[in-house]
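hiii, so i know i said id send this last week but things got crazy w the move. better late than never?? heres the sequnce for the chain we talked about at the cafe, plus the structure i predicted for it. fair warning i was half asleep when i ran it
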Amino acid sequence: MVHLKRNKVPKTWPIPRKGTKYVVVMKEGIEQGIPLLIAIRDILKYARKRKEVKYILNNIEVKINNKIVYDERRGLMLFDILAFPSIKEYYRLTINKNKKFDLEKINENEAKERIAKIENKKKIDNKTIQLNLLGGQNYIYDKDCKVGDSIIIDLEANKIKEIIPAKEGMKALVFEGKHLGQRGKIKKIDEDYCIISTEEGEDIKALIKHIIVVK
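okay and structure toks below
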């Protein structure tokens, strides 16, 4: 499927509900992120038409997670890094309080790292563990970590740089569920749920599988 009717796109996509009948569909699945086309045209407003986005991708170096991209249907997933090195513009895909995907402007050093959540662990041998991450990536790791923790990936070296443990006192973002887009500190963890004290001072209850721990 290359296109989707506009009224069928996820509510997290930051596009008007009215407009052209069809919207381009990202290759990786419509619920987990947004197409690069929407990021460049609708959020950053670097272009007005799909044709202009294609021109940018073919003539200006554009990177996602330190890899050059050319396809406007390429998916930009949660916390992916979008970079325009020639104009020194760098962004991180996040979710805002309006429950929409958004691009957070960051600096060049911040663009060298990406946060990802550990969704599963698989033992390969006595010392080696394969980490399955939110978004589908896999990494081999031999140090202590657990499902629900986050990792910091060094995009230049393509290796895990740091573990961010999912524990009380750590910052978190809710990326699914009723409280989508809320940020705050983890106040309490109780089996499958956690209590988060939001930036507005409100306590909310969210499933652990719906949050990602951040710096």
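btw The chain has a mean pLDDT of 90. thought thatd interest u
miss u guys!!
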